[in-house]
C-alpha cells in the first residue's frame, strides 16, 4: 500500500480539497492500493498513518509539503514514522522540497524528493523500489543512496492537466471540504493549469513548476465543475492557478461554457494580460460569476517592477482598478514592498500608489507584504536581484525555527536592507488602510465591527498620519477581523 499524506496547513473551517494529493491519487487509481491521510481532516494524522502501517505492508509514504505550517507538520510526522518504522521509505514532494530540495534531503527521515510535477515520478519511483528500474532513471527525483550520497536526476518535462485522469473525489468525504466563504455556502477549489511563463524574480513557482503554463481545456474544466455541483452541491469555487486568464480566447470560451452553472468564483490573473481584454470579455467573465480577482501589483514604482522582471506597469494596474469597478468585480491587489536597492523610495512611492488605487476603485482589497526572496532550485546561496545573499536554512528543522517561519509567512522577515522605521511605516500603513476598508471576505464579522474600524481609522487615512496606531491595533485584536494575506499563505 502507498500512503499519500497531506499535512495540516490551515484551520478546520478553512480547509479545502487537498488538490496536490488528489492529483497523485488520480495517477494511482485503478493501479495501486493507496490511502489518503489529510491532516486538515484527521484529528491525529500521525496515529492514522501508524494504524495503516500496522495493518498493511507500506511501500512508500508520500508527503506533500508547502513552506510554513504544513512543512512543520510534515517534519513532525515524518520524524515519528522514521523513529517507529525505519523500514518505511519516505518521499517528500510539493512546493517546499521542489524549491529547497537540499534542505529536505538533509533530514534523516526523508529518503526521496520529488521536484515539480509528481504524478509520473511517483509511478516510476514505485517501479524502482520494486526493482523494475534503476533510481537514476527516474526524472524529477532526488534521493540518498545506501551510503548517504545525494543524487539529483534530470528535470521532468511538465504535462498539462488534460494528460492526466480526473481527481478521484470519491476517495474523500467531499462534503466536509465544501465550507462557507465570501463566495458561497459550499465553496470548492480547482486547479486548471500548471507552470508559469513569467520570470518574476521574487517568486518560486516558475522554478518549481516550469516556465510554460499548460492549461486544462475549457471542456474538462466545466465537466469537473459540473460534477462538483451536481454530486456535491458546490455553489462557488476558488481557482488556484497562478494565471487563470492567460489567453483571452481561452478565457472567453471557458466563461461562456460555465455561465450556466451559476457559480460565484475567485481566481488569480495578470495585470498586463487582463488590461488588454475587451469589454466583451470582461462582461463574459462577470456573467460567468466571477466575483473577485487577485492581481500581483507588487509595487507602485515602475523602476521596481522592471527590476523584479514583473513585466507590468503601474498604469496597467490603475487600468485594471478602473475596469474591474466598471464591471462590478472586486480586485485584490498584492504588494511586496521593500526593494533592497532602495527600500525607502519603493515604500514611499508604493504607499502613494495604493492611495491612488483606492481613489479609482474603493472596493479594491489591498494585501501588503514585505519583500522576501526565494532561491532557485539547487541554488544554495539564495541570490535575489540586487546581488544580496540570504543564508537560507539547510534543513526542515531550520525552516521550522521562529525566525524562518516568520520569514516564510512574511510576518516579520527581518530583512537586513529594510530599516526599522521603514518597516514600521509599512506595517502601520497596512493596519490603517485595512481598518479604513475592512475586507469583505470575513463572512463572520458583524456589520458594526466594520463601521467601527472605518470610523476609528478615517482621520488617520485622511491626514496621512500612520504613526503609533495603538487604537487600531487594540481594536483589531478585539474584533479579530480576518486578514486576506494570512488566509492566502
From TrEMBL:
The signal peptide, as residue positions, is: none
Domain (Radical SAM core) spans 182-414
List keywords of the entry alphabetically: Iron, Iron-sulfur, Metal-binding, Methyltransferase, S-adenosyl-L-methionine, Transferase
Q: Which domain of life is it from?
A: Bacteria
Q: The B12-binding domain covers which part of the protein?
A: 4-136
Query: A GO molecular-function term, please?
Result: cobalamin binding
Key word Nucleotidyltransferase present in the record?
A: no
Alphabetical list of SUPFAM superfamilies matching this protein: Cobalamin (vitamin B12)-binding domain, Radical SAM enzymes
Q: Please tell me whether the keyword S-adenosyl-L-methionine is annotated for this protein.
A: yes
Q: Name one Pfam family in it.
A: B12-binding
Provide the cofactor list for this protein.
[4Fe-4S] cluster
Which protein are we looking at?
Radical SAM domain protein
Query: Which source organism does the UniProt entry give?
Result: Acidisarcina polymorpha
Lineage, uppermost ranks:
Bacteria, Pseudomonadati, Acidobacteriota, Terriglobia, Terriglobales
